[in-house]
Amino acid sequence: MNERVQHGAQVRREVLGDAHVDRAEAKTTEFTRPFQEYITEAVWGSIWTRPGLDRRTRSCITLAVLTALGRPEEIAMHVRAAIGNGVTAEEIAEVLLHTGAYAGVPAANAAFAIGQRVLDELDSQEG
């Protein structure tokens, strides 16, 4: 395993959490293994580790792009990651609102609904 894969695996766990990564790895098949290896090395090991942006900023950008593309399953995961990276609920709302102005109200509306559901789940786990 090369250094980018090792560092990518570490960053992926730090951002998404062990439970998420363990579930993804448990579902990996011979067919999906090359893709899992690719995202671990290229996305987590080459992009998320770059020094030009901090993780909070990367989380905000990721939420904006996922909202614009209409990827609800990824939005939920990255709302959790953003909270873990220190992005507040208010900042997440601002990212989604700002994205709505440029990517469309329907996309932002769906992302707000997902974001609220995740924030409610996180609140109920704390209390």
UniProtKB/TrEMBL annotation:
Annotated ranges, domain Carboxymuconolactone decarboxylase-like: 35-114
Entry-linked InterPro entries: 4CMD/NDH-1_regulator, AhpD-like, CMD-like, Decarb_PcaC
Enzyme Commission (EC) number: 4.1.1.44
GO molecular function: 4-carboxymuconolactone decarboxylase activity; peroxiredoxin activity
Name of the top EC class for this enzyme: lyase
Top-level taxon: Bacteria
Keywords: Lyase
Alphabetized NCBIfam families for the sequence: decarb_PcaC (TIGR02425)
Protein name (database record): 4-carboxymuconolactone decarboxylase
